[in-house]
Amino acid sequence: MTVREYTEKDIPRMVEIWNQIVEDGVAYPQLDCLDERKGAEFFARQTVSAVAVDGEDRVRGLYILHPNNEGRCGHIANASYAVDRACRGEHIGEKLVLDSVAKGREHGFRLLQFNAVVASNVHARHLYERVGFRLLGTIPGGFLMKDGHYEDICVYYIEL
Questions:
Q1: What is the pLDDT of residue 68?
Q2: Which of 10, 79, 99, 108 lies at a CB distance of 3.0 to 4.6 Å from 3, suitable for a disulfide?
Q3: Three-state SS for 137?
Q4: pLDDT at residue 147, rounded to an integer
Q5: Residue 11 confidence (pLDDT)
Q6: pTM of the model
């Protein structure tokens, strides 16, 4: 499994994987899925959009990296990760996270911050902590789950 910058041919698969996460309703804040046109625009707007591909160059996951804010806080990055449901548990997420940390440094960001890691997303939380992210705090009831209940969110960061 390798991580590389996305190309236009990757967009349909990226949209499919991204939409899996949106449809699950347990991780991303977005309510609406992307179509290919909106997906192409969305991925092009990011500082980095990258894909994890297998030996046959099939997209199995992706991440986006962009400023978390602007101006005096523009040195802090934010990222989102998505792994195809069929490939979870294969450590693709770890490759994506590590690549995003390296790319964040390359692009001059000083920190990488996650604003809203759902507290029950224990696999993601363990991964982030294992690679050096620090838990800054927890926001009670900060995420509306698809089933209508509110879940705490955790804020993480790592210095780049």
A1: 97
A2: 99
A3: strand
A4: 95
A5: 98
A6: 0.95
Q: What is the dihedral of CA 25, 28, 34, 36, to 10 degrees?
A: -120
Amino acid identity, position 78: N
Q: Is residue 25 classed as helix, strand or coil in its secondary structure?
A: coil
DSSP 88-134: TTSSHHHHHHHHHHHHHHHTT-SEEEEEEEETT-HHHHHHHHHTT-E
Positive/negative CA dihedral, 92, 97, 99, 103:
positive
Torsion of CA 113, 29, 131, 73, to 10 degrees: -10
| Model pLDDT, residue 127 | 97
Task: Say which CATH class 2-159 falls into.
Answer: alpha beta
Which residue bears the tokens 């962009």? 66
How many residues comprise the chain? 160
Rounded to the nearest 10°, the torsion over CA 95, 101, 107, 113 is: 130
Contact between 155 and 135 under an 8 Å Cβ cutoff? The reply is yes
| Amino acid type, 156 | Y
Supply the pLDDT for residue 86: 94
